[in-house]
Write a structure and sequence with these properties.
66% of the residues lie in helices and 2% in strands. It is mainly α and 290 residues long. The chain is rod-shaped and about 135 Å long.
Length: 290
């Protein structure tokens, strides 16, 4: 390597070797400032951010937990328990009220059942007493028993929804079954009576009037059959006999279910307030059926 020439101010010339880079570094290194590698600031910043985040998270957690003091937790738990007890109490009262209402409705329906039986039995007895009883032994009762206005077969009749309270027990269902059988016999008895009244009024009486037989006159069965005709004569005889038997059968069924139903209702509702009635005179309904 060429040696540079340095000229001094006085004209003298000196030669010297150029220092190497390593020599320069060794010469100036004691005085050079410490240089941080390029990655060091990023690591420091990350650590600083992590520390800041940790502190912030701890502060947020403390802020969240701070309201949950023992007193606050006790108050919150008390409020929750109070709300639960209140809801349970409201449900219990509502359920008790519902059961009380169902019991009241069932009791009312039970009274209606006994009242319906009373009315049905009374209707059968009135027909028997007013129209049938005095003519039971009369061979000509098919004529002597008069026709009546038609009876309403839907009056004093109960339907299933009105007696649904009987469906919840086996004994109640048995009572309901027997009642409907008895009620069907009652309806059939009225239907038979209405059919006979219509036949008597619309067929028999016009035929008798056309025959010229005076009212109250004594007449033989053969003459009467000739006056009415074989068909009408047989129809009125059979219809009258059916009415007598239907009234007896309906009375028997209704009397039996009346006793069973009342005993069941008294046992179920623990009260003796349900209507009880006895028939002092059956006007041949029971005597003729034995």
């Amino acid at each position: 390597m060429a040696q540079p020439i340095v000229r001094l101010n006085d004209g003298r010339l000196y030669s010297y070797m150029s220092p190497t880079i390593a020599q320069c570094s060794a010469l100036f290194s004691p005085t050079l400032p410490h240089v941080v590698p390029p990655i060091a600031p990023a690591v420091t910043a990350a650590k600083s951010l992590a520390a800041t985040t940790s502190v912030a998270a701890s502060s947020d957690l403390l802020a969240i937990i701070k309201p949950f003091t023992p007193d606050a937790l006790a108050n919150g738990f008390s409020t929750l328990v109070g709300a639960l007890i209140g809801a349970m109490l409201a449900y219990t009262l509502q359920r008790r009220f519902q059961k009380s209402l169902e019991h009241k409705n069932a009791r009312t329906a039970a009274h209606r059942l006994m009242f319906a039986l009373l009315q049905q039995i009374n209707t059968i007895i009135l027909i028997q007493r007013d129209y049938v009883y005095s003519e039971l032994a009369n061979r000509g009762r098919f004529l002597s028993i008069p026709p009546t206005p038609l009876f309403d077969t839907t009056k004093n009749v109960l339907e299933l929804p009105e007696l649904a309270f009987l469906l919840d027990t086996t004994a109640g269902r048995a009572i309901l079954y027997d009642f409907y059988i008895a009620q069907e016999n009652y309806i059939e008895a009225l239907n038979q009576w209405n059919m006979r009244s219509t036949l008597h009024l619309e067929k028999v009486q016009p035929a008798l009037a056309a025959s010229g037989i005076p009212n109250g006159a004594a007449i033989t069965e053969e003459a009467l059959q000739k006056a009415l005709g074989v068909h009408i004569f047989a129809s009125i005889v059979n219809s009258t006999d059916n009415c007598v038997e239907s009234l007896r059968r309906a009375f028997k069924k209704l009397s039996e279910i009346k006793a069973k139903a009342r005993a069941h209702l008294v046992h179920r509702f623990k009260t003796n307030e349900f209507t009880d009635f006895e028939v002092p005179d059956t006007y041949g309904l029971v005597q003729q059926s034995q």
